[in-house]
Design a protein that fits this description.
This protein has three domains: 82 residues, Gyrase A, domain 2 (2-Layer Sandwich); 115 residues, no CATH class; 174 residues, no CATH class. It is built from 18 helices and eight strands. The strands form three sheets. Strands 1-2-4-3 form a four-stranded antiparallel beta sheet. The longest helix has 43 residues. The radius of gyration is 24 Å and the shape is globular. The two termini are 41 Å apart.
Protein backbone atom coordinates (compact mmCIF):
# COMPACT_ATOMS: atom_id res chain seq x y z
CA UNK A 1 0.00 0.00 0.00
CA UNK A 2 1.07 3.58 -0.60
CA UNK A 3 2.33 5.45 2.44
CA UNK A 4 0.39 8.42 3.76
CA UNK A 5 2.66 11.41 3.16
CA UNK A 6 0.40 13.88 4.94
CA UNK A 7 2.81 14.66 7.79
CA UNK A 8 5.90 15.29 5.65
CA UNK A 9 3.80 17.35 3.21
CA UNK A 10 2.52 19.57 6.03
CA UNK A 11 6.00 20.05 7.45
CA UNK A 12 7.48 20.97 4.06
CA UNK A 13 4.81 23.56 3.27
CA UNK A 14 5.07 25.07 6.75
CA UNK A 15 8.85 25.39 6.42
CA UNK A 16 8.62 27.24 3.11
CA UNK A 17 6.28 29.88 4.51
CA UNK A 18 2.92 28.26 3.86
CA UNK A 19 0.72 27.83 0.81
CA UNK A 20 0.36 31.56 0.17
CA UNK A 21 4.12 32.00 -0.20
CA UNK A 22 4.28 29.60 -3.19
CA UNK A 23 4.17 31.06 -6.70
CA UNK A 24 5.24 27.97 -8.65
CA UNK A 25 5.47 24.31 -7.68
CA UNK A 26 6.81 21.39 -9.70
CA UNK A 27 9.23 18.48 -9.31
CA UNK A 28 11.90 16.47 -11.10
CA UNK A 29 13.16 12.91 -10.52
CA UNK A 30 14.16 13.43 -6.89
CA UNK A 31 13.42 17.06 -5.94
CA UNK A 32 10.39 19.18 -5.08
CA UNK A 33 10.89 22.59 -6.68
CA UNK A 34 9.35 25.75 -5.22
CA UNK A 35 9.35 29.35 -6.37
CA UNK A 36 8.25 31.66 -3.59
CA UNK A 37 7.25 35.28 -2.97
CA UNK A 38 9.37 35.86 0.13
CA UNK A 39 12.59 33.84 0.51
CA UNK A 40 12.99 35.05 4.10
CA UNK A 41 10.01 32.93 5.15
CA UNK A 42 11.86 29.70 4.26
CA UNK A 43 13.47 27.87 7.19
CA UNK A 44 16.22 25.83 5.53
CA UNK A 45 17.58 24.31 8.72
CA UNK A 46 14.13 23.07 9.72
CA UNK A 47 13.61 21.63 6.22
CA UNK A 48 16.81 19.59 6.51
CA UNK A 49 15.58 18.05 9.78
CA UNK A 50 12.29 16.77 8.31
CA UNK A 51 12.28 12.98 8.33
CA UNK A 52 12.34 11.82 4.71
CA UNK A 53 14.15 14.92 3.40
CA UNK A 54 17.73 14.30 2.24
CA UNK A 55 18.67 17.94 1.79
CA UNK A 56 17.79 21.21 0.11
CA UNK A 57 19.45 23.67 -2.26
CA UNK A 58 18.78 26.98 -3.98
CA UNK A 59 19.02 27.01 -7.75
CA UNK A 60 18.59 30.57 -8.96
CA UNK A 61 15.28 31.74 -7.50
CA UNK A 62 14.03 28.19 -7.01
CA UNK A 63 14.17 26.33 -3.69
CA UNK A 64 14.65 22.60 -4.23
CA UNK A 65 13.98 19.95 -1.59
CA UNK A 66 15.50 16.51 -2.13
CA UNK A 67 13.12 13.68 -1.15
CA UNK A 68 14.37 10.88 -3.43
CA UNK A 69 12.24 8.26 -5.16
CA UNK A 70 9.08 9.18 -3.24
CA UNK A 71 8.97 12.60 -4.92
CA UNK A 72 5.90 11.77 -7.06
CA UNK A 73 3.81 10.71 -4.07
CA UNK A 74 4.79 13.69 -1.92
CA UNK A 75 4.25 16.08 -4.82
CA UNK A 76 0.75 14.72 -5.46
CA UNK A 77 -0.06 14.81 -1.74
CA UNK A 78 0.96 18.46 -1.42
CA UNK A 79 -1.10 19.34 -4.50
CA UNK A 80 -4.08 17.48 -3.08
CA UNK A 81 -3.82 18.99 0.41
CA UNK A 82 -3.22 22.59 -0.62
CA UNK A 83 -5.18 22.79 -3.87
CA UNK A 84 -2.19 23.29 -6.14
CA UNK A 85 -2.71 22.39 -9.78
CA UNK A 86 -0.20 19.72 -10.74
CA UNK A 87 2.47 20.94 -13.18
CA UNK A 88 0.77 24.33 -13.51
CA UNK A 89 1.87 27.86 -12.68
CA UNK A 90 0.05 29.14 -9.59
CA UNK A 91 0.82 32.84 -9.80
CA UNK A 92 2.56 34.78 -12.56
CA UNK A 93 6.03 35.56 -11.22
CA UNK A 94 6.98 39.23 -11.07
CA UNK A 95 10.68 38.44 -11.15
CA UNK A 96 11.12 36.91 -14.58
CA UNK A 97 14.55 38.10 -15.64
CA UNK A 98 17.00 36.63 -18.09
CA UNK A 99 19.90 34.88 -16.39
CA UNK A 100 22.16 31.88 -16.90
CA UNK A 101 20.11 30.01 -14.28
CA UNK A 102 16.90 30.82 -16.14
CA UNK A 103 18.36 29.45 -19.39
CA UNK A 104 19.51 26.27 -17.65
CA UNK A 105 16.13 25.87 -16.00
CA UNK A 106 14.40 26.30 -19.38
CA UNK A 107 16.62 23.69 -21.04
CA UNK A 108 16.24 21.29 -18.12
CA UNK A 109 12.46 21.65 -17.94
CA UNK A 110 12.13 21.10 -21.69
CA UNK A 111 14.48 18.11 -21.98
CA UNK A 112 14.01 16.15 -18.72
CA UNK A 113 10.43 15.02 -19.52
CA UNK A 114 11.49 13.39 -22.81
CA UNK A 115 14.31 11.31 -21.32
CA UNK A 116 12.06 8.23 -20.97
CA UNK A 117 11.46 8.40 -24.74
CA UNK A 118 15.16 8.66 -25.52
CA UNK A 119 16.22 5.99 -23.03
CA UNK A 120 13.53 3.59 -24.21
CA UNK A 121 14.27 3.97 -27.92
CA UNK A 122 18.04 3.94 -27.40
CA UNK A 123 17.73 0.54 -25.75
CA UNK A 124 15.72 -0.62 -28.75
CA UNK A 125 18.69 0.52 -30.84
CA UNK A 126 20.97 -1.52 -28.57
CA UNK A 127 18.89 -4.62 -29.30
CA UNK A 128 19.27 -3.91 -33.03
CA UNK A 129 23.04 -3.49 -32.64
CA UNK A 130 23.29 -6.78 -30.76
CA UNK A 131 21.23 -8.48 -33.48
CA UNK A 132 23.69 -7.06 -36.03
CA UNK A 133 26.70 -8.18 -34.00
CA UNK A 134 25.51 -11.74 -33.47
CA UNK A 135 23.60 -12.01 -36.78
CA UNK A 136 20.29 -12.74 -35.05
CA UNK A 137 17.28 -12.50 -37.38
CA UNK A 138 18.63 -9.56 -39.37
CA UNK A 139 16.37 -10.43 -42.29
CA UNK A 140 13.23 -10.68 -40.19
CA UNK A 141 10.33 -8.26 -40.01
CA UNK A 142 11.01 -7.79 -36.30
CA UNK A 143 14.49 -6.49 -37.08
CA UNK A 144 13.05 -3.95 -39.54
CA UNK A 145 10.41 -2.77 -37.08
CA UNK A 146 12.88 -2.43 -34.21
CA UNK A 147 15.20 -0.46 -36.49
CA UNK A 148 12.68 2.26 -37.28
CA UNK A 149 11.27 2.27 -33.73
CA UNK A 150 14.77 2.85 -32.36
CA UNK A 151 15.22 5.79 -34.74
CA UNK A 152 11.82 7.31 -33.92
CA UNK A 153 12.74 8.77 -30.54
CA UNK A 154 15.65 10.73 -32.02
CA UNK A 155 14.17 11.67 -35.37
CA UNK A 156 11.15 13.37 -33.76
CA UNK A 157 13.14 15.17 -31.06
CA UNK A 158 12.07 18.65 -32.26
CA UNK A 159 8.41 17.67 -31.82
CA UNK A 160 8.87 16.25 -28.32
CA UNK A 161 11.03 19.15 -27.17
CA UNK A 162 8.70 21.69 -28.77
CA UNK A 163 5.74 20.45 -26.73
CA UNK A 164 7.52 20.42 -23.39
CA UNK A 165 9.34 23.70 -24.06
CA UNK A 166 5.94 25.32 -24.66
CA UNK A 167 4.66 23.77 -21.43
CA UNK A 168 7.67 25.08 -19.54
CA UNK A 169 7.08 28.60 -20.87
CA UNK A 170 3.32 28.40 -20.24
CA UNK A 171 2.55 29.06 -23.90
CA UNK A 172 0.55 27.08 -26.49
CA UNK A 173 1.60 23.41 -26.39
CA UNK A 174 -0.09 22.60 -29.74
CA UNK A 175 1.85 25.42 -31.41
CA UNK A 176 5.07 24.23 -29.77
CA UNK A 177 4.48 20.75 -31.17
CA UNK A 178 3.70 22.25 -34.58
CA UNK A 179 6.91 24.28 -34.66
CA UNK A 180 8.86 21.09 -34.03
CA UNK A 181 6.92 19.20 -36.71
CA UNK A 182 7.59 21.94 -39.27
CA UNK A 183 11.35 21.52 -38.75
CA UNK A 184 11.22 17.84 -39.72
CA UNK A 185 8.50 17.86 -42.39
CA UNK A 186 9.33 15.35 -45.18
CA UNK A 187 9.24 18.10 -47.82
CA UNK A 188 11.91 20.09 -45.97
CA UNK A 189 14.04 16.99 -45.41
CA UNK A 190 13.68 16.09 -49.10
CA UNK A 191 14.73 19.61 -50.14
CA UNK A 192 17.79 19.34 -47.89
CA UNK A 193 18.76 15.97 -49.36
CA UNK A 194 18.35 17.27 -52.91
CA UNK A 195 19.89 20.70 -52.16
CA UNK A 196 16.76 22.25 -53.67
CA UNK A 197 16.51 25.98 -52.81
CA UNK A 198 13.55 27.16 -50.68
CA UNK A 199 12.46 30.56 -49.41
CA UNK A 200 9.87 32.13 -47.10
CA UNK A 201 8.41 35.45 -48.30
CA UNK A 202 11.43 35.69 -50.61
CA UNK A 203 13.89 35.12 -47.76
CA UNK A 204 16.13 32.14 -48.62
CA UNK A 205 16.29 29.19 -46.23
CA UNK A 206 19.54 27.66 -45.08
CA UNK A 207 18.92 24.02 -45.87
CA UNK A 208 19.42 22.05 -42.65
CA UNK A 209 18.19 18.66 -41.47
CA UNK A 210 16.73 19.42 -38.03
CA UNK A 211 15.91 15.86 -37.02
CA UNK A 212 17.56 14.86 -33.72
CA UNK A 213 18.27 18.53 -32.90
CA UNK A 214 17.61 20.46 -29.67
CA UNK A 215 18.65 24.08 -29.92
CA UNK A 216 16.71 25.20 -33.01
CA UNK A 217 13.37 24.23 -31.46
CA UNK A 218 14.29 25.52 -27.99
CA UNK A 219 15.10 28.93 -29.47
CA UNK A 220 12.05 28.90 -31.74
CA UNK A 221 9.57 28.09 -28.97
CA UNK A 222 11.05 30.78 -26.73
CA UNK A 223 10.54 33.45 -29.42
CA UNK A 224 7.16 31.94 -30.30
CA UNK A 225 6.00 32.32 -26.69
CA UNK A 226 6.63 36.08 -26.86
CA UNK A 227 4.93 36.51 -30.23
CA UNK A 228 1.96 34.35 -29.25
CA UNK A 229 1.44 36.43 -26.10
CA UNK A 230 1.51 39.73 -28.02
CA UNK A 231 -0.97 38.48 -30.62
CA UNK A 232 -3.24 37.08 -27.91
CA UNK A 233 -3.26 40.39 -26.03
CA UNK A 234 -4.13 42.48 -29.09
CA UNK A 235 -6.58 40.14 -30.83
CA UNK A 236 -10.35 40.70 -30.49
CA UNK A 237 -11.86 38.08 -28.18
CA UNK A 238 -14.16 36.78 -30.94
CA UNK A 239 -11.24 36.21 -33.34
CA UNK A 240 -8.55 34.87 -30.99
CA UNK A 241 -9.20 31.24 -31.89
CA UNK A 242 -8.27 32.06 -35.51
CA UNK A 243 -5.79 34.94 -35.30
CA UNK A 244 -3.53 33.61 -32.53
CA UNK A 245 -2.48 30.32 -34.18
CA UNK A 246 -2.56 31.69 -37.74
CA UNK A 247 -0.55 34.86 -37.16
CA UNK A 248 1.88 33.10 -34.82
CA UNK A 249 2.67 30.51 -37.48
CA UNK A 250 3.00 33.07 -40.26
CA UNK A 251 5.34 35.28 -38.24
CA UNK A 252 7.39 32.39 -36.87
CA UNK A 253 8.09 30.72 -40.24
CA UNK A 254 10.87 33.06 -41.43
CA UNK A 255 12.17 33.59 -37.88
CA UNK A 256 12.46 29.86 -37.22
CA UNK A 257 13.50 28.54 -40.64
CA UNK A 258 15.72 31.40 -41.80
CA UNK A 259 17.29 32.67 -38.57
CA UNK A 260 16.90 30.63 -35.39
CA UNK A 261 17.11 27.19 -37.00
CA UNK A 262 20.53 27.72 -38.61
CA UNK A 263 21.88 29.54 -35.52
CA UNK A 264 20.67 26.75 -33.23
CA UNK A 265 22.24 24.14 -35.49
CA UNK A 266 25.62 25.88 -35.32
CA UNK A 267 25.32 26.11 -31.53
CA UNK A 268 24.49 22.43 -31.21
CA UNK A 269 27.35 21.46 -33.48
CA UNK A 270 29.91 23.52 -31.58
CA UNK A 271 28.68 22.41 -28.18
CA UNK A 272 28.86 18.78 -29.27
CA UNK A 273 32.34 19.41 -30.62
CA UNK A 274 33.41 20.75 -27.21
CA UNK A 275 32.83 17.32 -25.70
CA UNK A 276 34.63 15.63 -28.58
CA UNK A 277 37.54 18.09 -28.17
CA UNK A 278 37.79 17.31 -24.45
CA UNK A 279 37.73 13.60 -25.22
CA UNK A 280 40.24 13.72 -28.08
CA UNK A 281 42.66 16.33 -26.72
CA UNK A 282 42.63 15.56 -23.00
CA UNK A 283 41.98 11.84 -23.35
CA UNK A 284 41.58 9.95 -20.10
CA UNK A 285 42.38 13.13 -18.15
CA UNK A 286 39.21 14.77 -19.47
CA UNK A 287 37.08 11.78 -18.43
CA UNK A 288 38.79 11.77 -15.01
CA UNK A 289 38.07 15.47 -14.49
CA UNK A 290 34.40 15.00 -15.38
CA UNK A 291 34.21 11.97 -13.07
CA UNK A 292 35.60 14.03 -10.20
CA UNK A 293 33.49 17.14 -10.78
CA UNK A 294 30.16 15.46 -11.61
CA UNK A 295 28.85 15.55 -8.00
CA UNK A 296 29.36 19.31 -7.91
CA UNK A 297 27.72 19.70 -11.33
CA UNK A 298 24.69 17.73 -10.10
CA UNK A 299 24.56 19.81 -6.92
CA UNK A 300 24.53 23.01 -9.00
CA UNK A 301 21.70 21.70 -11.17
CA UNK A 302 23.72 22.09 -14.38
CA UNK A 303 23.92 18.37 -15.15
CA UNK A 304 20.93 18.50 -17.50
CA UNK A 305 22.82 20.91 -19.75
CA UNK A 306 25.58 18.31 -20.09
CA UNK A 307 22.91 15.72 -20.89
CA UNK A 308 21.70 17.90 -23.79
CA UNK A 309 25.24 18.07 -25.19
CA UNK A 310 25.61 14.30 -24.76
CA UNK A 311 22.34 13.56 -26.56
CA UNK A 312 23.40 15.87 -29.40
CA UNK A 313 26.68 13.97 -29.61
CA UNK A 314 24.89 10.62 -29.54
CA UNK A 315 22.56 11.67 -32.33
CA UNK A 316 25.55 12.50 -34.54
CA UNK A 317 27.95 9.64 -33.76
CA UNK A 318 25.75 6.85 -32.36
CA UNK A 319 27.78 6.64 -29.15
CA UNK A 320 28.77 8.83 -26.19
CA UNK A 321 32.14 8.64 -24.36
CA UNK A 322 31.86 11.11 -21.47
CA UNK A 323 28.64 12.17 -19.75
CA UNK A 324 26.71 8.89 -19.63
CA UNK A 325 29.89 6.87 -19.10
CA UNK A 326 30.88 8.84 -16.00
CA UNK A 327 27.25 8.93 -14.84
CA UNK A 328 27.25 5.26 -13.83
CA UNK A 329 30.73 5.46 -12.30
CA UNK A 330 29.84 8.54 -10.25
CA UNK A 331 26.61 6.97 -8.98
CA UNK A 332 28.56 3.93 -7.76
CA UNK A 333 31.15 6.19 -6.11
CA UNK A 334 28.44 8.08 -4.26
CA UNK A 335 26.94 4.77 -3.17
CA UNK A 336 30.32 3.48 -2.00
CA UNK A 337 30.95 6.62 0.06
CA UNK A 338 27.55 6.21 1.73
CA UNK A 339 28.28 2.56 2.45
CA UNK A 340 31.53 3.62 4.11
CA UNK A 341 29.68 6.15 6.27
CA UNK A 342 27.06 3.55 7.19
CA UNK A 343 29.73 1.07 8.32
CA UNK A 344 31.85 3.57 10.22
CA UNK A 345 29.15 5.66 11.88
CA UNK A 346 27.87 4.79 15.36
CA UNK A 347 24.82 7.02 15.04
CA UNK A 348 21.72 4.93 14.25
CA UNK A 349 20.02 7.55 12.09
CA UNK A 350 23.17 8.28 10.08
CA UNK A 351 23.78 4.56 9.54
CA UNK A 352 20.21 4.02 8.28
CA UNK A 353 20.16 7.10 6.02
CA UNK A 354 23.62 6.32 4.63
CA UNK A 355 22.73 2.70 3.86
CA UNK A 356 19.47 3.72 2.19
CA UNK A 357 21.40 6.27 0.10
CA UNK A 358 23.94 3.57 -0.79
CA UNK A 359 21.16 1.38 -2.21
CA UNK A 360 19.49 4.26 -4.05
CA UNK A 361 22.71 5.45 -5.70
CA UNK A 362 24.30 2.06 -6.41
CA UNK A 363 21.23 0.20 -7.65
CA UNK A 364 18.87 2.87 -9.00
CA UNK A 365 21.52 5.39 -10.04
CA UNK A 366 19.74 8.23 -8.20
CA UNK A 367 22.48 10.21 -6.47
CA UNK A 368 20.67 13.20 -4.96
CA UNK A 369 19.76 11.51 -1.63
CA UNK A 370 23.37 10.36 -1.26
CA UNK A 371 24.79 13.71 -2.36
CA UNK A 372 22.60 16.05 -0.32
CA UNK A 373 21.89 13.73 2.58
CA UNK A 374 25.36 12.29 3.23
CA UNK A 375 28.40 13.16 1.09
CA UNK A 376 27.89 16.90 0.59
CA UNK A 377 26.62 17.23 4.13
CA UNK A 378 29.65 15.63 5.80
CA UNK A 379 32.25 16.77 3.22
CA UNK A 380 34.89 14.03 3.61
CA UNK A 381 32.69 11.36 1.94
CA UNK A 382 32.24 13.81 -0.95
CA UNK A 383 36.00 14.13 -1.35
CA UNK A 384 36.29 10.32 -1.27
CA UNK A 385 33.61 9.96 -3.97
CA UNK A 386 35.33 12.60 -6.11
CA UNK A 387 38.65 10.73 -5.83
CA UNK A 388 36.91 7.50 -6.80
CA UNK A 389 35.15 9.25 -9.69
CA UNK A 390 38.47 10.54 -10.98
CA UNK A 391 40.09 7.08 -10.81
CA UNK A 392 37.10 5.35 -12.41
CA UNK A 393 36.87 8.05 -15.09
CA UNK A 394 40.57 7.75 -15.86
CA UNK A 395 40.26 3.97 -16.36
CA UNK A 396 37.23 4.44 -18.62
CA UNK A 397 39.17 7.06 -20.58
CA UNK A 398 42.25 4.85 -20.96
CA UNK A 399 40.01 2.08 -22.30
CA UNK A 400 38.21 4.52 -24.65
CA UNK A 401 34.90 3.34 -23.20
CA UNK A 402 31.74 4.36 -25.04
CA UNK A 403 28.05 3.84 -24.36
CA UNK A 404 25.82 2.95 -27.30
CA UNK A 405 22.58 3.93 -25.60
CA UNK A 406 21.21 6.96 -23.79
CA UNK A 407 21.12 5.63 -20.25
CA UNK A 408 20.36 6.61 -16.70
CA UNK A 409 23.07 6.21 -14.07
CA UNK A 410 21.81 2.83 -12.87
CA UNK A 411 24.46 0.09 -12.90
CA UNK A 412 21.98 -2.20 -14.67
CA UNK A 413 22.38 -0.05 -17.78
CA UNK A 414 25.91 -1.38 -18.24
CA UNK A 415 24.39 -3.57 -20.96
CA UNK A 416 24.55 -0.44 -23.15
CA UNK A 417 28.32 -0.96 -23.41
CA UNK A 418 28.05 -4.44 -24.96
CA UNK A 419 27.62 -3.26 -28.58
CA UNK A 420 31.11 -1.73 -28.34
CA UNK A 421 32.64 -5.17 -27.99
CA UNK A 422 34.09 -7.26 -25.17
CA UNK A 423 36.99 -4.89 -24.53
CA UNK A 424 34.65 -1.88 -24.20
CA UNK A 425 32.46 -3.81 -21.75
CA UNK A 426 35.37 -5.09 -19.62
CA UNK A 427 37.01 -1.66 -19.37
CA UNK A 428 33.71 -0.21 -18.15
CA UNK A 429 33.32 -2.92 -15.51
CA UNK A 430 36.91 -2.28 -14.38
CA UNK A 431 36.22 1.47 -14.15
CA UNK A 432 33.09 0.88 -12.07
CA UNK A 433 34.78 -1.55 -9.68
CA UNK A 434 37.84 0.67 -9.24
CA UNK A 435 35.75 3.78 -8.62
CA UNK A 436 33.60 1.96 -6.07
CA UNK A 437 36.53 0.45 -4.13
CA UNK A 438 38.56 3.67 -4.08
CA UNK A 439 35.56 5.71 -2.87
CA UNK A 440 34.76 3.14 -0.18
CA UNK A 441 38.32 2.86 1.13
CA UNK A 442 38.89 6.63 1.08
CA UNK A 443 35.66 7.17 3.00
CA UNK A 444 36.70 4.68 5.68
CA UNK A 445 40.00 6.53 5.99
CA UNK A 446 38.77 10.15 5.78
CA UNK A 447 35.37 10.09 7.47
CA UNK A 448 35.19 10.76 11.20
CA UNK A 449 32.13 10.35 13.36
CA UNK A 450 30.04 13.44 13.94
CA UNK A 451 30.01 14.99 17.40
CA UNK A 452 26.92 16.88 16.48
CA UNK A 453 24.99 17.23 13.25
CA UNK A 454 27.04 18.91 10.52
CA UNK A 455 30.19 19.24 12.69
CA UNK A 456 33.01 16.82 12.11
CA UNK A 457 35.18 15.57 14.92
Amino acid sequence: MKKNYKEISQQIVECIGGKDNVTFFTHCVTRLRFNVKDVDLINEEKVKKIKGVSGCIWFGEQFQIVVGSKVDDIYSKICQMYGFQEEKKLIESTQKKWSVNAVIEYISGSVAPILPILIGTSFVKIVVLLMDTFRWGINSGTYQVLTFVGDTGFYYLPVFVGGFAAKKLNTSIPLGLLMGAILIHPSLIDAVNKSAPLNVYGIPLTLVNYSSSFFPILMSVYVMSKIEKIIRNFSPESLKAILVPFLTIMIMLPISLCILGPIGTVMGTYLGNVLIWIYEKLGFVGVAILGALSPLIVASGMHMTLVVYAITLFGEYGYEPLVFVTGIIVALCQGAACLGVSIKSKDKNIKQNAFASFLTASIAGITEPALFGITLRYKKPLYAAMIGGAIGGAIAGIGSVKTYGLISSSVWNIVAFLPGGTSNFIWMIAACIAGFIVSFVCTLYLYKEQIEEGVEA
